[in-house]
């Protein structure tokens, strides 16, 4: 479970065609560029190795190396979350610019 916490989050291919969210608790959601190519399932991480079993029973695996996830001939990179803009801060910034 400790290994899992290091890797939870959203992983995306460089071209954006594959997007995978590793959820806490061992579930994942995956979407590919084509409609109908979405998958959900379970995953287990041991060290830097990840095993997948989608809800239809299909198996896959991958591994983490140098901050990337290597999965089915693709390299996924962790998506960096964007900080939410707070309305008060945005209004204050605009008001300061108007002075």
UniProtKB/TrEMBL annotation:
InterPro entries (alphabetical): Atu4866-like_sf, Uncharacterised_Atu4866
> By its UniProt entry, which Pfam families does this protein fall under?
Atu4866
| The protein's name in its UniProt record | Putative ligand-binding protein with streptavidin-like fold
Organism of this sequence: Taibaiella chishuiensis
